Amino acid sequence: MADETPPDLRARLIAIALDALERGEDVGLRAIARDAGVSAMAPYRHFRDKAALLAAVAMRGFDDLKAVLLDADQRADAVAALVAQGEAYIAFARANPALFRLMFAGHDGGPPPADDNAYGVMVRRLQQLAPVNLDAAALACWSGVHGMATLALDGGLPDDATALEHAALTLIVRGLAGAAPPSSRP
Amino acid sequence: MADETPPDLRARLIAIALDALERGEDVGLRAIARDAGVSAMAPYRHFRDKAALLAAVAMRGFDDLKAVLLDADQRADAVAALVAQGEAYIAFARANPALFRLMFAGHDGGPPPADDNAYGVMVRRLQQLAPVNLDAAALACWSGVHGMATLALDGGLPDDATALEHAALTLIVRGLAGAAPPSSRP
After folding, report:
1. How many domains does one find in chain A?
2. Shortest Cα distance from B157 to chain A (angstroms)?
3. CB count, 10 Å around CB of A176?
4. Residue A95 is part of which domain span?
5. CATH label of the domain that carries residue A66
6. What's the CA angle centered on B165, arms A166 and A90, to 5 degrees?
7. Minimum distance, in Å, between the CA of residue B39 and any CA atom of chain A
8. In a shared domain, residues B43 and B92
9. In a shared domain, residues B19 and B63
10. Which of A147, A151, A174 minimises the CB distance to B184?
11. What ipTM was predicted for this assembly?
């Protein structure tokens, strides 16, 4: 019994499910138990059912996305940092398409509204741009990045469009600063 | 035979499939034939298989989306017109979630690169903003709107967030004008 429930079995089951998901394989608790080399019942100590396992995989995805954004967030300039975050977000989606779709598959919808998550990494940088309406700027930024990632996964953006993506992300982020907007009638 | 293939049967089959899709019902050719009151073979005069029917439904969706954008495109001011287009795009996604997902489900990916489609309606307005890089501005605008629509469908945006969406769309569109960008270090 003891070797079926090591302290890290839960994390290991999540990692195995994540791999299976990206390979398009079965992520049922029975299949995951077999891949983990534990008894068919062992996963039930940690997950009520497949849906609970997938919810944990999605949560792990948001943790990974946060780490990816923090890793990209190295520039002093806020615009450059936010553009780099956006590029990292899109690269994360391209590298983990099944996970990305699962994360935003609508069970709870989008990132949880906590400060200590991927969304918070973006918002903290956005604050440096002193937007007049932080909520609107956050929605604009997240939507632009998320839309680009979604279009990339759905084949609407070629894999080599990174220069175009950089230019588009820069346009979006620059527009969010608190300065007066340019006239719409040039 | 004649009453099984009236000139408008193709359009009628597409309309029936569209309704069935949004109701979550079977959109196989046999079910659609039954709903249309025609023989099981009649749809095969117009569609090779279910995939061909769904492709036609998606194309109909892009036509409908174009009509919706044109209908929203009534303001003289280009920023206001583009924001209204964005709001109409998001409302279209909310009103036709299954169709919207089908349209962007990655078979060919995104809107076809023609001038005479929904994308073209947006690009013609964007040109009035004289963006320095039209391709980047178009990707930024479409991504922001598409991302907001996708987040709305996936539950990341409440249905009553339209004021916030308006503010976010305005931020994105204003940022696309050809004027010099505001400083990133206020």
Report:
1. 2
2. 8
3. 30
4. 58-174
5. 1.10.357.10
6. 25
7. 35
8. no
9. no
10. A174
11. 0.86
